[in-house]
From TrEMBL:
Keywords, ordered alphabetically: Kinase, Transferase
Alphabetized SUPFAM superfamilies for the sequence: Actin-like ATPase domain (SSF53067)
Carbohydrate kinase FGGY C-terminal domain boundaries: 261-455
Example of a GO biological process term: carbohydrate metabolic process
Domain of life according to the entry: Bacteria
Residue ranges of domain Carbohydrate kinase FGGY N-terminal in the record: 4-249
Short name of one Pfam family: FGGY_N
GO molecular function, one term: kinase activity
Record InterPro entries: ATPase_NBD (IPR043129), Carb_kinase_FGGY (IPR000577), Carb_kinase_FGGY_CS (IPR018483), FGGY_C (IPR018485), FGGY_Carb_Kinase (IPR050406), FGGY_N (IPR018484)
Recorded family membership: Belongs to the FGGY kinase family.
Descriptive protein name: Xylulokinase
Length: 513
């Protein structure tokens, strides 16, 4: 039986899986690790951590009973958004950690760009804005703050490009990863922007000259690796791409109008379309499928599931202790929270625990509970957190309304949030859309495997995918939806009202350190 391998290098773990020609998962394995945070707002990782995890996951999958490594016809790598990319020297040896997507150290560079660059022109060329989320600002930080590293750097490689090099010996970058860098990628022409590179002072020769579609082979598996893993020598290594787009593909997003919400530690809501508008405050890049024509546009909340975990860990010790005896803390909180009306009896939560990405783009934004009284208990706050993250989802979805594409009339949700029936109902009521989830695990590694399967002629992604079973989880309740419309209006007023206070608190905190 012919098979392929999909790999996803995530922020906190790497996962590999083996798929058959119908997209069914035959084996899977994951390995965890940590993000390095040596200073406030910094988030970096050394690529050897990823490579060791990739090799470990591959070995575990290929040693699974019933899996024949000689049946594997190709593999593909998805990865987290690698921000700056990995600075490597001429021998492709890492010189400095990768400044990943959640790193916020480049705020000075953001301010410089806002003062010196025509932001309308930057948006017209790249389809994106300016924020320390984007890789081009992190590259500028490296040049300014680590000139010795910058001088030695031959390439700045996204995580999947670096791993693809170790697998195949070939240097290339896929268009989704290039576009997600923002600032220096011409989204319409699908190439690097000479104009923006020169304006921002970023050396073009530090970027891979070979840009490829995500479903394109970048090379073939090296003989040494094939031998050590038991794989056939020379099988194709498919370019892959950014994990958010890969997970969207895995959830069945293959044409304009398809849209998916991925709610795990962070939240990404993404749609497929054919044009980008930077003024909407969303992020755009070529999609991992049909990337020469179609664009993946998404918005994201930095702390979605992380907000829920933070709340439970910080305030629900009693529930966690009791959960040792029976179930989890979430199982104790959900029944009473389910009985509450929309709005949790007068509570709103802003989920900006690490600043926020789209559509507000403010690294100094902070979280808040509004409306607290002595009446409120733990389950009130728990529901308010779920609702606050869902309002952030709707905030991003509404930012897309000016796009020239009609969204599907239902919303697919994947990720850890799908385990909560209460949260699925809240999402249906807040967005006024029926919510569907998959019975199976739908993640970026599956998207990578599907791309590999198409590249190896095992399946055709132009046809409806049959790799999973969609289940209707919730339909909107009109009474609740009307109440949430009112609350969403208040939610949207909170950030601009509180922004001056947030910034002042942030400034005072920074000065006191």
């Amino acid at each position: 039986m012919e098979t392929v391998i999909g790999i996803d290098i995530g922020t906190q773990s790497t996962k590999a899986l083996v798929l058959d020609g119908n997209g069914r998962i035959l084996a899977e394995h994951s390995r965890g690790y940590r993000v390095d945070t040596p200073h406030p707002l910094w988030a970096e990782q050394w690529p050897d951590v990823w490579w060791e995890a990739v090799l470990g996951c591959l070995s575990a999958c290929l040693s699974t009973p019933g899996i024949n490594p000689r049946d594997v016809k190709g593999l593909c790598v998805s990865s987290l958004y690698g921000g700056s990319g990995i600075p490597v020297d001429a021998d492709i040896r890492p010189l400095y950690p990768c400044l990943i997507w959640m790193d916020r150290r480049a705020e000075a560079q953001v301010q410089w760009v806002k003062e010196h660059i025509n932001l309308t022109r930057l948006g017209d060329i790249t389809g994106n804005g300016v924020d320390s989320y984007y890789g081009f600002t992190k590259m500028m930080w490296l040049k300014a703050e680590r000139p010795d590293v910058w001088e030695q750097t031959r390439y700045l490689l996204p995580p999947n490009s670096y791993v693809n090099y170790l697998l195949s010996g070939e240097i290339a970058i896929d268009h989704s990863s290039a576009g997600n860098i923002g600032g220096i990628y011409d989204l319409e022409r699908r190439t690097w922007s000479t104009e923006m590179l020169e304006a921002l002072g970023i050396d073009r020769d530090k970027l891979p000259s070979r840009l490829v579609n995500s479903a394109t082979p970048v090379g073939r598996l090296l003989p040494s690796l094939a031998s050590s893993l038991g794989l056939c020598e020379g099988i194709p290594v498919i370019a892959g791409g950014v994990d958010a787009a890969m997970a969207t593909l895995a959830a069945g997003a293959t044409r304009p109008g398809n849209h998916v919400a991925m709610i795990g530690t962070s939240m990404c809501w993404g749609m497929i379309n054919r044009r980008a508008d930077a003024s909407l405050g969303l992020i755009s890049m070529p999609h991992v499928l049909n990337g020469d024509q179609e664009i993946y546009t998404f918005g994201g909340a930095l702390t979605a599931g992380a907000s829920v975990s933070w709340y439970v860990d910080t305030f629900c010790g009693e529930d966690k202790a009791a959960a040792v005896e029976s179930g989890s803390a979430f199982e104790r909180l959900e029944p009473p929270a389910r009985e509450l009306p929309p709005g949790a009896n007068g509570l709103l939560f802003l989920p900006y625990l690490m600043g926020e990405r789209s559509p507000v783009w403010d690294a100094q934004a902070s979280a808040a509970f509004i409306g607290l009284s002595l009446f409120h208990q733990r389950h009130h706050l728990y529901r308010a957190v779920l609702e606050g993250v869902t309002f952030a989802l709707r905030h991003n979805m509404e930012a897309s309304t000016q796009q020239e594409v009609t969204l599907d009339d239902h919303l697919i949700v994947v990720g850890g949030a799908a385990q909560s029936d209460l949260w699925m109902q809240i999402i249906a009521d807040v967005t006024r859309m029926p919510v569907y989830t998959y019975r199976e695990s739908v993640e970026a590694a599956l998207g990578a495997g599907l791309l590999a399967a198409q590249a190896c002629d095992l399946l055709d992604l132009a046809k409806p995918l049959q790799h999973g079973n969609l289940v209707e989880r919730a339909i909107p309740c009109e009474t609740a939806a009307c109440r949430y419309d009112e609350l969403f209006t208040l939610y949207c007023q909170l950030y601009p009202t509180l922004k001056p206070v947030m910034h002042q608190l942030n400034t005072n905190h920074t000065l006191s350190e």
